[in-house]
Design brief:
The protein has five helices and 27 strands. By secondary structure, the protein is mainly beta. The strands form eight sheets. Strands 10, 11, 13, 14 and 15 form a five-stranded antiparallel β-sheet that branches. The longest helix has 9 residues. The ligand Nc1nc2c(c(=O)[nH]1)N[C@H]1C(S)=C(S)[C@@H](COP(=O)(O)O)O[C@H]1N2 binds next to β7.
Length: about 400
């Protein structure tokens, strides 16, 4: 190791997957990992500040937690129309597993006439589809709530829209033959519980059958034309676009069709649930008053320019970003540079397919020198808009779709 590398190594901590060094993994994140019990992302020094940790295969993400690994993308790094693999946020509830695609099977059981155990090769014989699909963590924006909610303090970047290739969940469920009693799915991945106990499941969520049967709900093995990266579920994941990211189970091993609402870990209590009726900030909400989050609400980001821009007076500024609305589409995006007094309508592209985010842009001419905030506000297909302030407080801090804003100083 040269002197320079030594210096870098002492300043930065490379995350290790199992026993592999980060350098090896960085070359190909789809490499099979080592023993599952070691497969947490182990840093050589756990006390290392999170901002000095490097995630192999990621570029510029902000680490919120290292065990389990959770990292979000700063808005300006989400500028591309389709989110590249190295910019997609990462959300884990447990430890990233060792996965071996050659031995991989997917089991479909429960309320089906013919339970199936499919190899990857058999799965790939179903008709294949490629869609660009947005996945947003239900807790994106949690950092905005007061009193604060426990959990990863996501700000804006627990959202991505990548292109996935896979088969339709509905085709696979149909081939197993859904019984009349089928009402909900339960998805199981192969990640390990944080405790290391192999009998514990970190997360197992699902959706009503109707969402599973949507044409855009996929069982995917490719992300942006590459095998799914290890961090994103290699070799197989569910993509349930528009719903909380937690319903897009990674490292998918088993689909259990249920005759009632699924009751796997993180389905009950306060997980991915919000109060049925609005509550004041900080309220205690009895569990029975909580309901499962389904479609995510309308939201947008300003991805260019980066906030805190210094700009020259009399020069037009192009501003752009994305907007999305769970199961719905976006009807309009408006921009204000005077704290919401006046709004101009941005130009907006249609989605490349349903459940893809939509790109918008507009040109701003600042009337005079000074400090500005650029606010963006999306309106969805039924007319619902993003709120300016943080919306309804809830115990776990989900569904904050307040407008994004950036600052520009015109000199
Ligand atoms: N097996 C498994 N699947 C999982 C999770 C997990 O911890 N384990 N986290 C979920 C959550 S909460 C989110 S928001 C998405 C994030 O997907 P990403 O890491 O590919 O961005 O994965 C979901 N799928
Ligand atoms: Mo999530």
């Amino acid at each position: 190791m040269g002197n320079r590398q030594k210096l870098n190594a002492s300043r930065r901590t490379f995350l290790k997957y199992g026993g592999l060094t980060a350098m090896t993994v960085a070359m190909d994140l789809t490499l099979p990992l080592l023993h599952p019990l070691q497969s947490g992302l182990i840093t050589s020094a756990n006390a290392e500040p999170l901002d000095e940790i490097i995630i192999p295969g990621k570029n510029g993400l902000i680490i919120l937690n290292n065990r389990p690994l959770n990292a979000e993308t700063p808005p300006h790094l989400l500028d591309e129309a389709i989110t590249p693999n190295d910019r997609h946020f990462v959300r884990n509830n447990g430890l990233i597993p060792q996965t071996d695609s050659t031995e991989w099977t997917l089991t479909i059981d429960g309320e089906v006439h013919t339970p199936l155990v499919l190899t990857l090769e058999q799965l790939k014989r179903f008709k294949q589809y490629t869609y660009s699909l947005q996945i947003e963590c239900g807790g994106n924006g949690r950092a905005g709530y007061h009193p604060p909610a426990k959990g990863n303090q996501w700000t804006y970047g627990a959202i991505g829209c990548a292109t996935y290739t896979g088969v339709r969940m509905k085709d696979v469920l149909r081939s197993a033959g859904l019984k009349g009693s089928a009402v909900y799915t339960g998805y199981y991945g192969s990640d390990l519980h944080l405790s290391g106990d192999p009998n514990k499941v970190p997360i197992s969520r699902g959706t009503p059958i109707s969402k599973a049967m949507d044409e855009h709900t996929l069982i995917a093995w490719e992300m942006n034309g590459r095998p799914l990266p290890a961090l994103h579920g290699y070799p197989l994941r569910v993509v349930t676009p528009g719903w909380p990211g937690s319903t897009s189970i990674k490292w998918l091993k088993r689909i259990t069709v249920r005759d009632k609402e699924h009751d796997g870990p993180k389905m009950r209590g306060y997980s991915y649930r919000v109060p049925r009726n609005p509550v004041p900030p900080g309220a205690h909400v009895p569990k029975e008053n909580m309901k499962i989050i389904e479609s995510m609400p309308v939201k947008s980001l300003i991805t260019f320019p980066k906030s805190r821009l210094n700009w020259k007076h009399k020069k037009s500024l192009l501003v752009r970003g994305h907007a999305w609305a769970g199961d719905r589409s976006i009807k309009a995006v408006h921009v204000s540079i005077d704290f919401g007094v006046n709004w101009v309508q941005a130009s907006l592209s249609p989605p490349v397919n349903a459940f893809a985010w939509q790109n918008w842009n507009t040109t701003i001419d600042f009337p005079m020198k000074g400090y500005y905030e650029v606010w963006a506000r999306a309106t969805d297909s039924i007319g619902e808009m993003q709120p300016m302030v943080v919306p309804g407080w809830n115990p776990k801090g989900y569904l904050n779709n307040a407008m994004h804003r950036i600052s520009v100083t015109v000199l």
